[in-house]
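Recap from last week: sequence in, structure out.
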Amino acid sequence: MKKVTLISVITASVLFGAGADGTAKNSATGGGSTQIVRLETVEINSVGDNISDSGISEGFLDKQVSSGPLSNKTVRDTPYSIQTITKEVLDNQGIQNFDELVKYFPSAQIEYRGGGEMGRPQTRGFQGSVVGNVFWDGFYSVSTTAMPMAMFESLQVQNGLAGSLYGGQNPAGIFSYTRKRPQKDYRSIKAEYMSDEYLGTTADVSDKFEKVGYRVTGLYGDGEREPNDSNTRRRMLATALDFYLTDDLTIETNYSYYNHIYRGYYNSASIGRDGSVPSVDSVGVAGSNDERFMRTRTASGKFKWTPQDWLYLEGGYQWQEAIRSRDGTSRFTVPSAFLKALMQFDTAGVQHNFGIQGNGYDWKNGKAKTTMSKMRNISIADDIKFNDNWNIILSAGNSWFKSSTYDEDGISWAGSVIYSFTPEINMYFTYADSLQSGEVKTYDSDNGFNATHPLYGQSTIFEPYRSKQYEIGAKAKLWDTLDLSAALFQITRPVAVSYSGTSTTVGRKTTYNDDGEFIQLGEQRNRGLELMAGGEIIDGLAVNGGVTFLKTKIHETPYSQIANKSVAGQPKVQANMLIDYTVPFINKLSFNTNLHYTGTRYANANNTVKIPNYFTLDLGARYSVKHVVGDELIVRFSVSNLFDKDYWAGVGTISTFDTTSGSTSASLWRGYGRTFMLSAEVKF
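Predicted structure tokens:
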């Protein structure tokens, strides 16, 4: 395979969003053709999306979407299921890290590995990769490290397949973080106390001038949270320095440092050999010398340039290093890059928003920076608007996967049809066909083979795995205040690789006895329904959340033990609803509650061990007053898991499939108990 080198980089902001005066601009139609007007970029953040104090009463359909080379899109006009959680929700709910945030997305979960801080994100029952599904401002970023929410303006999750837009990846969705950017004359300081004895402070300072803007956010926290006698220490510095060289050209730079140390944490638990599930309160605590140590450094730079009214260019480079041990031996280093061009033009009266993007990353491991894998991709997307009712979106990307033992490539593509009944109501159908890197399996002692096997020492290289998705959905705004969306989907993909010969298992060791070969284990088929709602129900009462019904099956497998069985670790029902109420006539006093439900999950592949469902309730309140201390004082109080429910937050099924017993071993991870948070924020 010819080596592909990208000399540029990644990020995703949205083209064609707002004019220089901050108001939205649309193409004006006259004489049967579309007149192109100059349009500017819009970041997905509180400023660009006019976020309310609650962060939810404005709904979600009008929020801008960052989706690879697609442009000029809002959630309403994008043929995928998308949800955004804003800075305001992060602050009001006292959310510190991603493992506390993920529950607000009804279709998302963490696949626990080593703890929630370093778990893998997933949507629709498919697990994400270390690199490939998480983006910071459009740059590929490490998913398996602690991420402080104080650094970000928002998190947007696009469920399902997106390989045609971003390049080959697991079908686990896109987790798109937007970092804070400079604002005019903004300063705040926040102090917080969390039970049992955690104290923290955050300072956020920003300003914008004619040619330069800056933003600096610092965080320090230390103390006991959970369990008793544990210690969590958090240190963060995030800087953004932007240069507005001309009205058409902006340079954005970022640097961040985050150190997260957690001692005295809950250990994971294991399923008993007899299939028994241990009680949550029996979980032990790590020793005094054990710690989860994570340190992440990130630096990036990108340009945004509008050389012509109809053309927008963006590119950048990011370097990230995520260290997960104090001695630095466990680390991932990920440089990534992208360059994209977005343009708007007409052909025979048909309007096109066309984009092309080249992007990629290197995933390096350890101090020696041994290359785990490389991915390079070129994608194109054409958003074709025929009239006020009909719209078609076509996208395709060619991805190259490469490692020391793997060199494959292939095409991902997708097509969508959108029909708008009115500007406020539409339906869509999307088909997506997406790649992820295959596997390499070697017939050696590490995989249980000895020198008598006829293929000993040889490797089998599997083609890139191909996932397919069908999705039909509808989106609507009712009474101009409440947003609704629904999506019905099916996703299929190959799952893992197994050995086709006979085997003997003694204890936890499996020995292979004949000349069988590695084969595909089967196919995973996930079908589901997602329902979401967001916005104001009545004046002052806002909601945001939804429910996902998911049915997972393994089929087309030679192993009868798992045929038509549910995939381990995936709940059949998951729901979350955040409710925010502002008291009439005292519009700075608000109350909120969050209700979360996760249904039963299986802990093994042959579905003989079941993990109980759980429900948690959070309560909170906030009060703001102006010109008493600084320009504004905001006091927040919240209680998470009000009833102190004991529950298993995660089921980690990371062991290989055992063809003899038809099962996988699983680790269980305890959820957080009741936690109090009190904070005071002053804005100057």
